[in-house]
Write a structure and sequence with these properties.
mainly alpha
Length: about 160
C-alpha cells in the first residue's frame, strides 16, 4: 500500500495526490468499519465458544479436584484410624500397669483381692450347707433317741 502511494505521489500532480490520499484514507476507514462489524458478528460466536471451553475445563478440574480430595480424605482417615489404634493400645497398656501396681500395693497391705473374697464366699456357702446337713442329721438322731411320752394315767 505504501509503495502504491509513493508511485502515485511521484506521478501525480498536487490535486491528484490529494484525491489519492483521500481515497486511500476512505478505504482504510471502510476496512476498519468492516473489521469492526466482523468482530461484532464473530465476537458472540467466539465468546460462546470460550464459555463452552471454560465449562469443559471447569468440569475436568472439578473431577480431578474431587478425586484428589477423596484420596486425601481416605489417607487422612487411615492415619486417624492408625493413630486411634495406637492411642487405645497405649491406654490399655497404661491401665494394665496401673491395675498391676494397685494390686501389688493392696497385696502388700494385706487387703484381700476380689478372687479371695469370692473364694471365701464359696467356702462360707459350703460350710453353711455342711452345718445344715449336720443339723438335720442331729435332729433326726434326737428324735429317734427320745422315748415316746406316755399319757399320764387318769387319777
Amino acid at each position: 500500500m505504501v509503495r502504491k502511494l509513493k508511485q502515485i505521489a511521484r506521478g501525480a500532480r498536487g490535486g491528484d495526490l490529494a484525491n489519492t490520499v483521500r481515497d486511500s484514507a476512505q478505504q482504510i476507514w471502510l476496512a476498519g468499519l468492516g473489521a469492526f462489524a466482523k468482530a461484532q458478528g464473530e465476537g458472540a460466536k467466539v465468546f460462546n465458544a470460550l464459555v463452552k471451553e471454560g465449562e469443559a475445563i471447569h468440569s475436568r478440574t472439578r473431577k480431578v479436584t474431587e478425586r484428589k480430595v477423596g484420596e486425601m480424605t481416605s489417607a487422612a482417615g487411615k492415619f486417624a484410624s492408625q493413630a486411634s489404634s495406637k492411642a487405645n493400645a497405649t491406654w490399655d497398656k497404661l491401665e494394665h500397669v496401673f491395675e498391676d501396681r494397685v494390686a501389688r500395693a493392696l497385696h502388700r497391705l494385706g487387703v484381700p483381692t476380689n478372687r479371695d473374697i469370692q473364694n471365701l464366699g464359696k467356702r462360707v456357702e459350703e460350710l453353711n450347707a455342711s452345718v445344715r446337713s449336720l443339723a438335720r442329721g442331729n435332729a433326726a438322731k434326737r428324735a429317734a433317741k427320745k422315748p415316746a411320752r406316755r399319757k399320764a394315767a387318769a387319777k
